[in-house]
């Protein structure tokens, strides 16, 4: 199963909105085939593994990180391929919450005499697909907030300058995150201040869909994200409905979503619903303090990546990762769970999941 998990990770960034899945076929104590879901629309892990076998898989055991599918999508059901191959036992890690599967794959295998063992290395298998699990159950993108700050909590100097807070290794890690997530979201303030391209610079990587939250449509029509919109999908989320203001952006290839207003800003919950309909299953939020606060307050954030550099900026007016009004007391804070701390070059990366109970109680 650990080998299947390693294989599954090779599909990172290419399989969405499908899950990452790996499979290993074992016969008489020997691996005779293995595979993984390589990209959306391609063969699933089980079929790739079966296609690679070095001898007949009849009577063999297949280890799969996720419950085999039993419905027709881009590919036919994997349970049918398993049964046709004569596999005697199926060992899985994660259950599939997709209503089209959700135990039906196991049921069909058992009905046809296949032995089924579940929840092997379940925690590690589940860790492969938090995005898929969230999206398939809610229809909404999984949102990960990312920011880089100094040890005194600043994301920019008092002059507004922010390049570079972290070192090269941390910046390279961010490129991997941009490859991993389907969309990348920033606010108009970030575009006005830095004019970024918001692209993934890893050769051969999938480019994330760029989503710019611009309540009043303030960004210039010659901004980098606009000028390259015909090459890389770009969505402008705004409350602006004037067709004359919108037209220049659409002519350059941007998709403009006119959305309701919430507390003076784009209604982020409405935006998530629209993005979910477009099969954008995950978003890396690279916003400034204002957008980050709005995202937290709206209840759309599931994960936080905090890069912390070993330096101090100081400055009462220097920017911080989460601004806005903030909470009234420590007891109202947004707690983070499942913390993980990693050294990335000279910087520290702290990862945490936003406690969803906080959102339910809002």
TrEMBL record:
Q: Which Pfam families match?
A: dCMP_cyt_deam_1, RibD_C
Indicate which residues the UniProt annotation says bind substrate.
162, 178, 198, 201, 286
Which regions span the lipid bilayer? none
Which cofactors does this gene product need?
Answer: Zn(2+)
What InterPro entries does this protein map onto?
APOBEC/CMP_deaminase_Zn-bd, CMP_dCMP_dom, Cytidine_deaminase-like, DHFR-like_dom_sf, Eubact_RibD, RibD_C, RibDG_C, Riboflavin_Biosynth_HTPR
Entry annotated with the keyword Oxidoreductase: yes
One GO term of the biological process aspect? riboflavin biosynthetic process
Q: Where is the active site?
A: 46
Q: What is its EC number?
A: 3.5.4.26, 1.1.1.193
Q: Which UniProt keywords apply?
A: Hydrolase, Metal-binding, Multifunctional enzyme, NADP, Oxidoreductase, Riboflavin biosynthesis, Zinc
Which reaction is this enzyme known to catalyze? 2,5-diamino-6-hydroxy-4-(5-phosphoribosylamino)-pyrimidine + H2O + H(+) = 5-amino-6-(5-phospho-D-ribosylamino)uracil + NH4(+); 5-amino-6-(5-phospho-D-ribitylamino)uracil + NADP(+) = 5-amino-6-(5-phospho-D-ribosylamino)uracil + NADPH + H(+)
List residues binding Zn(2+): 44, 69, 78
Q: How is the cofactor bound?
A: Binds 1 zinc ion.
Instruction: Write out the pathway annotation from the protein's UniProt entry.
Output: Cofactor biosynthesis; riboflavin biosynthesis; 5-amino-6-(D-ribitylamino)uracil from GTP: step 2/4; Cofactor biosynthesis; riboflavin biosynthesis; 5-amino-6-(D-ribitylamino)uracil from GTP: step 3/4
Q: Which positions does UniProt annotate for NADP(+) binding?
A: 148, 164, 190, 194, 215, 288-294
Which CDD domains is this protein grouped with? Riboflavin_deaminase-reductase
An MF annotation (GO) of this entry: diaminohydroxyphosphoribosylaminopyrimidine deaminase activity
Q: Which family does it belong to?
A: In the C-terminal section; belongs to the HTP reductase family. In the N-terminal section; belongs to the cytidine and deoxycytidylate deaminase family.
Role noted for this protein: Converts 2,5-diamino-6-(ribosylamino)-4(3h)-pyrimidinone 5'-phosphate into 5-amino-6-(ribosylamino)-2,4(1h,3h)-pyrimidinedione 5'-phosphate.
Q: Which PANTHER family match?
A: 2,5-DIAMINO-6-RIBOSYLAMINO-4(3H)-PYRIMIDINONE 5'-PHOSPHATE REDUCTASE (PTHR38011:SF7), DIHYDROFOLATE REDUCTASE FAMILY PROTEIN (AFU_ORTHOLOGUE AFUA_8G06820) (PTHR38011)
Question: In its UniProt entry, what is this protein called?
Answer: Riboflavin biosynthesis protein RibD
> What's the name of its gene?
ribD
């Amino acid at each position: 199963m650990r080998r299947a998990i390693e294989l599954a990770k090779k599909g990172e960034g290419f399989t969405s909105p499908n899950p990452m899945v790996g499979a290993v076929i074992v016969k008489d104590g020997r691996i005779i085939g293995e595979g993984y879901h390589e990209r959306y629309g391609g063969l699933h892990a089980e079929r790739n593994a079966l296609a690679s076998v070095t001898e007949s898989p009849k009577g063999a055991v297949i280890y799969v990180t996720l419950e085999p599918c039993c419905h027709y999508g881009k590919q036919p059901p994997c349970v049918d391929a398993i049964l046709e191959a004569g596999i005697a036992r199926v060992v899985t890690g994660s259950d599939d919450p997709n209503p089209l599967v959700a135990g039906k794959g196991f049921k069909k295998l058992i009905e046809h005499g296949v032995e089924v063992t579940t929840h092997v290395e379940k925690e590690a298998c589940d860790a492969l697909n938090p995005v898929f699990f969230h999206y398939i159950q809610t229809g909404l993108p999984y949102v990960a907030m990312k920011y880089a700050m100094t040890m005194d909590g600043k994301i920019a100097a008092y002059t507004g300058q922010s390049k570079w807070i972290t070192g090269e290794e941390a910046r390279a890690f961010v490129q991997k995150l941009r490859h991993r997530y389907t969309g990348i979201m920033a606010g108009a303030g970030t575009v006005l201040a830095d004019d970024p391209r918001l692209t993934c610079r890893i050769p051969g990587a999938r480019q994330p869909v760029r989503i710019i939250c611009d309540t009043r449509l303030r960004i210039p029509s010659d901004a980098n994200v606009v000028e390259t919109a015909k090459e890389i999908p770009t969505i402008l989320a705004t409350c602006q409905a004037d067709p004359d203001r919108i037209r220049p952006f659409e002519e350059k290839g941007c998709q403009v979503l006119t959305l309701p207003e919430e507390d003076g800003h784009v209604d982020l919950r409405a935006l998530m619903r629209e993005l979910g309909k477009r099969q954008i299953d995950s978003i890396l939020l690279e916003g400034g303090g204002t957008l980050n606060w709005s995202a937290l307050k709206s209840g759309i954030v599931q994960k936080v990546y905090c890069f912390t550099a070993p330096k101090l900026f100081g400055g009462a007016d220097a920017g911080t990762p989460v601004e806005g009004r903030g909470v009234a007391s420590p007891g109202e804070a947004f707690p983070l769970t499942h913390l993980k701390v990693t050294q990335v070059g000279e910087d520290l990366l702290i990862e945490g999941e936003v406690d969803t109970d906080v959102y339910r109680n809002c």
